[in-house]
Amino acid sequence: MTLRLRLLLAFAFLSIVTAVAVSGAGYVRARDAIVQRAQDNAVIETTSRVEQLYPLPARAPDAASLERIAGKVSGREGMALVRAPGVSAGSMEESVITPELRGLVSSGQVGWQRVAYHGGVWLVVGMQMRISGGGASGIEVWVLRPFTSEIEVVDELALNAWLIGGAGLVLALGMAFFAARGVLRPVRELRMAAFRLGQGDLAVRVPVRGRDELAAVATTFNTTASSLEHHVGELRRMEADARRFVADVSHELRTPLAAMTAVTDVLDAETASLPGVAGQAARLVNRETSNLTRLVNDLIEVTRFDSGTAALALDDVDVAEVVSRTLRMRGFEVSESLPAGVRAQLDPRRLDVIVANLVGNALRHGAQPVTVTLYVEGSSLVIVVADSGPGLSADVLPHVFARFYKADSARGRSEGSGLGLAIAWENARLHGGTLTAANRPGGGALFTLRLPLGGDR
What residue intervals traverse the membrane (predicted)? Predict the structure, then answer.
């Protein structure tokens, strides 16, 4: 649930509670006042009409006199019932009088009660009549009058309360929407700025408005972004200096290494005739010079990738022939599945580097047999190199193509510089392809090279 929705729901809840409380309290007070006033008016009116009949004769009333009294107190819309001992008259049904109300009137008090009658609400008012002198006459007067108009007023009041509450809720939601929008704008700006910062836009900043908590957060974000931009800039500068240094040193070493290689080649040719320690030293110098030359060449290749100067020299080649030549020239003993006739637009030198690194890595760190498989899948050629070793551990797999990464940091330098797989991955990317590493279900590492057969890259 978003923060905006939570704010809107909170405002809506508070608005509903407030509207219900205010409208409900107003409705209850107004309803009670209307009902009470209507009841009081009905009682006063009935009492007044009864009092107009005084003084009553002292003789016992008959049915005709009771009928006359009922007609005078009932009014235009009501009905009346006049009861005396042994006789009664009027159009009102006696069944609407409750025992509680009858007992109250019998005690000499004026009583009233709302009752349901013929699907509506009616008011029953009852009292005793007095004879001249104030004595009890024994005559009870009951008046039944409609209470519908008052109930309609109460219902209309309830409807108005609901309408006012609904309008207040809509208004509150509108105000909540704009308030939430204003409150959340800095949060939204901060979120977008954080996203851009995560994408590498270190120059992004958020505007600081006011002096509240959000302004403090925005200030902290800007300070953090500035510090991060400064430190990343320093790291990039140092990285650029390091790469430039490596490139310069590598190029400077090429000339003396070329001379050393020529000398070691001569020594290598004479090692058979050199006695004891001299022969061993000559072979050691030759081997270390070769390793150093390979390392320098790898470093130069990496600097070309970093500077963007590495380029493809594409040629229409028979892929199986290029792979076979790579394996044959390096003396790799592997199991091959290289169907002839698979042609592609590739840089043969870079394909040679990729295959040599993959197969050499499988032979050094995996186990025999090592298989090299070539096939076409859609518009791509696929070369799979698999070994039968223990495979790649879970902590090694994510870093297998990282530069200078070695699964065993204690490995000797003679086992490689840690650049071979990184260079293979860069060459695959340069072709517009991919190079991935995984583990075989039955054990062993599995490297899969996918390159486009031809076309745009």
Answer: 161-184
User: Could you give phi then psi for residue 408, rounded to 5 degrees?
Assistant: -115, 110
Please give the average per-residue pLDDT across 234-244, as a whole number: 81
Q: What is the rounded end-to-end Cα distance, in angstroms, of the chain?
A: 44
| Domains assigned to the chain | 3-154 (3.30.450), 202-310 (1.10.287), 312-452 (3.30.565.10)
pLDDT for the residue numbered 411? 45
| pLDDT for residue 375 | 95
Residue 409 has pLDDT above 60, yes or no: no
The answer for residues whose C-beta is within 8 angstroms of residue 46's C-beta and 6 or more apart is 73, 125, 127, 141, 143
Within its chain, how far is the Cα of 441 from the centroid? 36
pLDDT at res. 414: 44
Nearest C-alpha neighbor of 396 from the set 384, 386, 405, 387? 405
Any idea what the Cα angle at residue 143 is, between residues 140 and 146, rounded to 5°?
A: 165
Q: Are 21 and 161 in contact (CB under 8 A)?
A: no
The whole-model pTM stands at 0.50
